[in-house]
Write a structure and sequence with these properties.
With about 325 residues, the chain is of the alpha+beta class. It is built from ten helices and four strands; from the N terminus they run αβαβββαααααααα. A four-stranded mixed β-sheet has the order 1-2-3-4. α6 packs parallel to α8 and α7 packs antiparallel against α8. The chain starts with a helix and ends with a helix.
Length: about 325
């Protein structure tokens, strides 16, 4: 069983490659995931179970809207008994424990578990399994309690550690480990109380991050331009200048160097049209997605570290 849970966690972590923008909600969003490693039940029976799980998360206000959320709920059935019931027509009996888990793919934790003993009878083994899984009712009090308790547990965990997480992120930022710092902040769910503290810390670190990247890009552009002073150098240097975001403190210096190159290399009009178009696109993206830009950097860092961080930190081995 532990090996199966490890497989679930690693698969979830690998899937967290994008974090789409999502409205703040009162509850922690939870997506439904069924691990491919659990291949002991037919696909149609698994589909019934997953549909019921989707209905349960939606009914309890925890349905996930984004592409790869942080929290997942999955079910790993464990067969206890099955046999043929003699008679005409022949009936099949199936009994299993439905083991539900809510997994934090970013924080590498299993937050909640719940086991629902179930059984079913059908005209075939598959139908008996389906009847067994139909016993999971999205509207039952037990299911609501499971999700409500999970929501409270996740919030309590991260709210109680929020100040420590911010402190660690600031320490990492002081050591210029900006991406790792943003990753530490990105694991705190938006539904937590005082989440504004995370946003404030992220805003400060994000500005340091883009200024650090801008300073390096500007230095590289100046070096290339100083060595060439021609159209080829302007094109190569301009690629670095185009990486500097408009709200960086080095943006005006980047534009000054861009104007200097443009005045010197007057024939390269198409290139500068491209540069201005990229600049306009960056400003639009900044205006539309600034709130989550820092989170995307953090999650990307977490995914890059997955082979080490996720595997070694997972609590069950």
């Amino acid at each position: 069983m532990k090996q199966i849970i490890i497989a679930v966690a690693l698969a979830l972590a690998a899937g967290a490659s994008a974090y789409a923008q999502q409205e703040r909600s009162e509850k922690v969003p939870v997506a439904v995931y069924y691990p491919e490693s659990v291949n002991t039940i037919p696909a149609d029976a698994a589909a019934v179970l997953m549909a019921k799980l989707n209905a349960a998360t939606t009914r309890n206000g925890m349905g996930a809207l984004n592409e790869a959320p942080q929290f997942y709920v999955t079910c790993i059935p464990v067969e206890n008994e099955k046999y043929v019931i003699p008679g005409s027509p022949t009936k099949y009996f199936f009994k299993a424990d439905l083991n539900f888990y809510v997994v934090d793919a970013f924080g590498k934790k299993i937050f909640s578990t719940w086991t629902l003993p179930s059984k079913g009878v059908g005209n075939s083994e598959n139908k008996a399994m389906i009847e067994c899984y139909k016993a999971f009712s999205p509207s039952s009090d037990a299911v609501s309690k499971f999700f409500n308790d999970t929501d409270a547990r996740i919030k309590s965990y991260y709210e109680g550690r929020m100040d420590l997480i911010i402190k660690k992120a600031n320490t990492l930022a002081a050591a210029y480990a900006y991406e790792e710092a943003l990753y530490e902040l990105s694991v705190v769910p938006e539904a937590c109380r005082n989440y504004e503290k995370i946003l404030d810390a992220a805003d400060i670190i994000w500005k340091k991050y883009i200024d650090d990247k801008a300073a390096k890009a500007l230095a590289k552009a100046r070096s290339i331009w100083a060595a060439g002073q021609d159209a080829a150098a302007a094109s190569a240097a301009g690629e670095y200048l185009a990486e500097i975001l408009p709200d960086s403190k080095y943006y005006d210096e980047a534009r000054k160097l861009s104007d200097e190159m443009k005045a010197r290399v007057k024939s390269d009009i198409d290139y500068y049209r491209k540069l201005e178009a990229r600049d306009n696109a960056q400003q639009h993206e900044l205006a539309m997605g600034k709130v989550n830009a820092w989170k995307e950097i953090g999650v990307a860092f977490g995914n890059h570290q997955q082979p080490v961080t996720y595997r070694e930190a997972w609590p069950f081995r």
